[in-house]
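Morning. Coffee machine broken again, so started the prediction first thing and wrote up yesterday's gels while waiting. Chain of 462 residues, entered below exactly as on the submission form.
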Amino acid sequence: MDAQVARMREAAARMEKAAAEQQAITQSRRLPGSAPSASSTQPSSSPPLPPPIQRAGLDGSGQPAFGVAIRPVDLPLLTSLGSKPPIDIAVDSEVVVITGYETKDRVPEVVLDRPGQKVVLLLSTYEKVLWKVSATPGTQVQAILVSSFQKPVSPVSGPPGTRLWEIDAGYASQVATPDAFKGWSQMMRSRFGATRLDALRSDYRLAGVQRYDRPDAVVAVLALPPPPPEKASVDVRFELTTSDQRRPVTWTNAGPLVPGDEWRDYFTRGKETPGPRGTTFAISGEGVNRIVGESSKPLAPMPPSFPPVSWPTDLAYDPIKGVVALTTLGGEGFLYRYDLRADRWIDYRSLSDMDITALAFDPVTRGYAAWTTNGELLLISAQGELAGRHRLGKTMGISTELMGRPLLLAPRGSGIALIQVRGSTVQAIWTFNTATGAVQLTWRAPPPESRPTVKPFVQRLG
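Came back before lunch.
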């Protein structure tokens, strides 16, 4: 502490000396006819200081300057036709999807340069921005669909007469993956009749100018059929709960134990976990509720020294120690632990901006596995310490942000099953080998057209 004080005093002394020398130089630059000051007639012990260097972002004194003034942008805006475009709006049109969390400029520009072609454009972000869309002569903008999480929806300036609809389409926050491409393609096909996706521009922060003058080459790569599943290097067995009767169904990382169970609807929302003796723990706005039958009561309040719960994402139950763990996104993100036997909160720790979307208890290691929005698999000790971090999202080729919670986790010591879900159905299973650090695709859902049809029962009389 004494050394720090000494350094601060030394710095202050240097600043005072520099200020005095600068004042002497200023006084020496007197107006014509003025008498020289006493200080200007005395020889200086130091050479005169050069004039301050002007740098971007600095004022004349070398101090940080304010940014450039930005005036309001006045653009003619398109009028929305509502939230329900025709279901065939994208038929026989090129389809361009531009999606991200935010944009580099507050007024991002999109240039459509496809003479002789009809184009449907989807603009989707988390932040609300002002889109500026233009089209070259001969390019027919069939429709613009705009979506933003922040409301009211982002306004759009575009060619006069262009049809605009405001929709809810979600948003991406990373570079496009094959799984993301598949998700956006299916959405545009099912909702708007698109037969293909010609461009998918996806990133956390989108470029300020997007120009579309040909179908993106990367689309051909993203549209390739997925690789076939492999035989797993380690076996994992787990249970999934049906969404209707809440009945456990046994699965392995190679598929359901009983053929046909892949067609069931499962509870995949997360945010709740079974506890002891028929108890269920569920996330609430203030923390965690304990549910027994029809009764729901919150756990003990958070200590005042703990950060308040904000954006809770998932929770897991450790039946060995009787501990409930809760993860949140608020601030830098936190991991809270609650002791059910003592009925009190144990501790919390920062997640250092690692946004966890799925959490599961490992009955073998007695630790936890977690999945982040950056496509990382985290291994967490029983005490809540980070024990391993593996970047798997790009290797697996899955989207971590598109349309909700993407994975369920089933950690079992030497292997972890990463279960991709969409809606209430299981789409694929990857297996992570904790010894080798390798990840494999070990099961993929059969195509919907292969689902067996159930013949209706007809009672015959007479």
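Helices lie at 2-28, 38-41, 178-192, 217-222, 393-396. Going to sketch it on the whiteboard this afternoon.
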